[in-house]
Structure formats: C-alpha cells, structure tokens
Amino acid sequence: MTLFKATSFRRFRRRKAVRPNERSALAKSTQSDLSRLVRSADPAVRKAFDVEMQSFSKLHARYLAEKENREELDWDRIKSPNDKQVIPYSHLPQITGSDALSKLAVLKVNGGLGTSMGISGAKSALEVKDGMTFLDLVVQQVEHLNTTHKVDVPLILMTSFNTHDDTLRIIKKYVSQRISITTFNQSRYPRIWKETLQPCPKHASDDKKHWYPPGHGDLYESLVQSGVLDRLLAEGKEYLFVSNSDNLGAVVDQRILQHMVDSNAEFLMEVTDKTKADVKGGTLIEYDFSMRLLEITQVPPDHVDDFKSVRKFKIFNTNNLWINLKALKRIMNGGGLDLDIIVNPKMTDAGQVVIQLETAAGAAIKHFNNAHGINVPRSRFLPVKSCSDLLLIRSDIYSLQNGRLDMSESRMFGSVPVIKLGDYFKKITDFQPRFKKIPNIIDLDHLTVTGDVHFGRGVTLRGTVIVVANEGQRIDIPDGCVLDNRLVSGNLNMTVGLIKTPHFDLAC
Questions:
Q1: How far is Cα of residue 210 from the mean position of the Cα atoms in its chain?
Q2: pLDDT averaged over the chain?
Q3: Are 6 and 55 in contact, with CB atoms under 8 Å apart?
Q4: 385 annotated active-site
Q5: pTM, entire model
C-alpha cells in the first residue's frame, strides 16, 4: 500500500477580485454584525451560539480572502487517480471475523428537508418501502448488525435546525430496540446578502429563512463541539462510517472496514463509476501527489466539459465516508480542517439574491494520511432525490431484508431502469395519488411520463415505455394493463381490451 501524506493545496493560479482595503472593511463590519447577533441570543444558548458565529466568521474571512486572491486549480496538474489511489472493491479482503465491528460507529447525515419533493418536515421520515421510512430502515440495519455479531454499534444522527425536533420525535419509537441512538445538531449559519456580503439576520431569533445548515462538511466541527467525538473515543470507537440518510445503498460493509484497519488508512471515500446522470458529481483527483475531491464548482468554466466527460473522470463521490476517529481528533486539535468553500446562491421570496457558504465532508480527504478511494458497486449508491427515484425503490425491482434493499433475482440485468417522471409527479403529494399501486417494472429499461397521467392496479411496464398526455388532457392507464415497448400519447381513458391507435399498441 502506497502512503499518501496529507498536504495543502496552495499553489494555484491567482486573479484579483477584491481589494485588500475592501476586505478589511467587510471583515470588520461582519464581525460587528456577528457580535450583535450573539448579544441578542437567549442567555441559555448564547455560549454555543457564540461558538457557531466564531466558526462562521472564520469561514467568511476565508471566503473574502479567496475573493481577493482568487485561487484556481491549475488544470494541467490534475491527474486521474491510479490503481493504488482508488482500489477496486473486488480487491478487498474477505471477512473471517467481526472484531473490527466493536470499534465502529455509524453516522447518518440527517439534516435535509426534501424540499425538491415537496416534503415540509425531515426527509428521513418519508415512507420509502413497505410502509417504512428512511430512519426505520437504518435502525433495522444497525440493529440486525448488533444482534447478528453480538456487538454494540451506535447510530449517530446529525440533524439540522430544520429537522432536529422532528428527528427527536421520531426516534422515540425505537426506545425498546437493541440500538443506541445519539442525535446532535449541526451548526446554524447566517445567509449573507450577495450585494454586501454581510449577514442577513439582525437578531439570533430571526426567521429560519435567514439561516442555513452549512453542508455536510460541518460534520467535523459539529462532532467536536457537541462532545460526540470525545464520547465515541471514550467508548473505544475508532472508526466512523458516514453517509447520507437518503442513500438506501449505504449499509455497513465489513470488507471496507477491514481494509481500513489492515491498510492503516485514516480516511476512505467510496466512489462508483459515472453514468450520464452523474456527470456533475464530485470526483477524486491526484493533485501535487496527493488525493483531493474536485467539485464542479471548483472547475474553471473552460474545463467544465472536460470535468463532465467520463473519459478522464470515470468515478464520482457517493459521500459514503470512513473516518479514523483518532486521526480526526489529532487534526482538529492541530487547527482543524480548512475545507474548500462551496458558494451556493439562493433567491429569496422577495427576489433578492443571498449566498450560503458551504463545505463538503469529502473535501477533508486531503487532510488525512493514507487517504484513498474504494470503487464500490453501484448498489451502494441508491439515493432518493426525486419521486422518480422513489418509484424505483417502491417497485418490485427491490425487496427488503433486515432493512437493506436487495435487487430481485428476476431482474435480467444488474442495472436499474432509467425513470423520468414529469412535473405532474414532482411533489410527493402529486406523485402518490397517481398510482393506485406501483407498476410492475422488473423488465423495464426506460420510462418517461409527461403530463396528467394516472396508473391503475396491476400495471406492467416492459422495455421502453413513453407516456405523454397533451396539455390540458389526461391519460388513465387501467388496471391490469401491460405496456411493452410502447408509446402512449394524446387524451385517453383506456378500457380493458386490446387497443390500437396510430400512437400505440398495447394489451389491457
């Protein structure tokens, strides 16, 4: 195993953006605003809030410095990782024991609301399969692991101010199960106005719309400030498996854990092969003889097409991470992690542009010794980001086994079908009434649905199926209908029987 020492990345091309005197004035003004916010906080939480504002102040200062001397990657020095920097999953050792599990903890990033699917509460409370929620499945997985191997792997949930109360309410139902669950709240940072770069809120209790959780890169600082890192180390835990709560493929894998132990890796990132749907995903690169996560926001405009190409960048980050807790403690005690800043612009209801300064957890890879990637099967990346994803998960392609999803043996190909549902299916409240029952799609390759379409019970979709309802019209697919490599379009209330029109030919 080749060792890769943690290094910094400071040799970039530079271009001016903000004058030094402007940066100094902005920094002083921001510090004054943050001090005022701290003074306005409830005394019971003021100390913790002050710590958050100090962390934000450092992030904001780095952002201003980068605007003054814009650091841009030298594209010619970027290399694709070699076989020792990204190891195929098939090369990992087979498991003969479970000793390493006693030193493991599992953390789920649980701060998302799922607003893109029209979910108002914690996304992890959404029912995804057989009446079970994301959290139900995670609890089942960890509980089964503990029972099977007679270990005590704790479950840690990192929430945000958007999901914390919901999460505390939900986990009460797991109190009698064989699992230890800990929650902690990640930081709450103020949005800043794009025009002035100053904080939006004027008071610590201002409306939620003025605040944001600063991305999963906040994981490390929040682990320290919450006391969870020290507690895990005191309990003898040395390894932490981190993943997003909506990635249903992210289950504990003993082969990856054992590889981490055997290779003395301080940080592992699970990557998988890119498809057309993943071209914007962050990728691992070698830069100045060390590993680094490259996000599309860091790519110079004239190289975006290169970044999206699978010829050079064949893998992307699943955000399944394995972290050595002792190494994390050492790094945080030594000054912490300066993670690459992601500038995320947002539009307010009033039409004003604000900025969220965020960081990505995977960017920490450059700070750890012997950090590298594991190229895992696609089955370990099953996120639910849209109702199209939800249709796939709820279908007969997957079954549940102790909280994990297993692909049906009846599926002829190892890949999953491409599903594209239109705007009528975008929100969960629109999606669910359009299916009396989820269709049978075990032999489906591609599905596109556009317009006002409703599906009956016992519908079967095979091959490539396209259903297009024209504007102002509606299509009802009746109970028991079989669509096999068919295009359905127009305005149709189908009835049982064999129906033929110029647009389609199908059996119902």
A1: 23
A2: 90
A3: no
A4: yes
A5: 0.90
